[in-house]
Design a protein that fits this description.
- By secondary structure, the chain is α+β, with helices and mostly antiparallel strands.
Length: 353
Amino acid sequence: MAQNNNDNKRSQKVKFQDQTVKIQTVIINGIECLRLKDVQRKFPKAQILSIDNEYQAFLHDERGNDLEPLRIIACFDQIVEAEESVEPSYNEIRSDLKEIKGIVKRVDNNVQEMLRQIRYVMTQMYELHEFTTPRYFFILPAKHSDIKAIDFVQNWFQTHYKLHFLCECSHDPKQMHVAPHEGYSIKKARDFIVKYAPYLRTTLQIVQVLLSAGGLTIPQLGSAAKVIDSVVPSKFKDTKYFEDMKQQLEMVDHLLNKVENQRNHAGASVTDGQKSKGAPLQGAELREIQTYLELVDDKRTLGNLYRIVTDDGHVRWVCLEHYDEISYNTEMSKYINEFESCSLGLSRTLRRD
């Protein structure tokens, strides 16, 4: 059994880097020793004990197993040099790995942010070029027309139609509303309807959803909504008109069916077949819409709608009320993101300090 004898206290000179100190030795099993843990109390990084540049093996048993506590025989006429281990300790490895993971994560986050910004710019550049005209629109007869009174398709084309845009304030059709404008008379109604019939069928469904949800008028979101609402045709605000409007939408639906049937009988191409399914319009097709409309204003605010870029880089055409609301939310999102970035940077700085 190991016994400590501290009756005759002596000290061993130990040098670590440029500092030399005296560390008390202990006697274990009759041998005066210098324990590694005593050295580490003064020099925590010390792992190796050497004399004259010769590494000193710790005392060990017959099988070569180091004895606990780790120790060497004291040499009072020599200076024991304490050194750091060439190989990093387990804790150092863990610390280094943790730091590397942190760096990799920051680099990955930076790369992802750069990619996000690139995608944002690319989306914005593309959509600003393509979507120079609102994408959601529908047509209605300018005056009440009786379906039964129109026998032939050719007579349907003689009807005076108006085009109305929708505010793209939401991806949910139930949240959209008619643009604050009286609508645009359509020139060459036959050519327009034949060309845009597949797409009109899709937007017609949106209007039917809006009508079933309670109407097409702009929601009263603020004081500006009252000004905008005053420009919306009164018929869209009159619930008594909704029933008549349903009939007019049915008339348009019948017209689109007849146009589609004629196209099928005439032998439509594969491309026309794909368009008949209501595929989104391309930029050139959207821009061409204006050539069919009368009294398009010079400011290009079609339907009193304004083009805006959302925080994810997409282009929308919205009314003034939603323009202000989306702009406010976008600016607030930027402010919050900048604040979070500053907070994160400050937090990292404090952790390093």
